[in-house]
Amino acid sequence: MLVSQIMTTDPASCTASANLEHALYAMLERDCGFVPVVTDDGRVAGVVTDRDICVAIALHQTLPCRMRVGDVMSQPVFSCRDDDTVLTALGRMTRHAVRRLPAVDSQGSLVGVLSLNDVALATHHPGGPTESDVAETLRAMCAHRIVEPSLA
Question: For residue 147, is pLDDT > 70?
Fold first, then answer.
């Protein structure tokens, strides 16, 4: 099964120059916690999560309309191709401990988002991932990581 068969095909996105309020509204409208950050030509430059935004607002004690997405977005970007197999994408999620991947085409332009939810819902499709594939990926993601706090 290919990523293109189960990914969300019209994802919300924003630019690095957008403010965090814009990204939050995009997440609210789409009922998601992740927005790819794209360049003017549609290439993925980063991602911003609801957690990234909450942490930035708390640390800087400012309003989301006063902060730019580019200042809090996560980089490097871990993505998948729309013509990758779902198992290849699951491997990337596992290696990088991420639940969502921007899906890009052969030119690197955003064409969708693949989430672990998409993969879990595809377990009943012929040729789709197994429940065991999903469980192993989730288990790897849930392992506690030690993160050094930044004083920036």
Answer: no
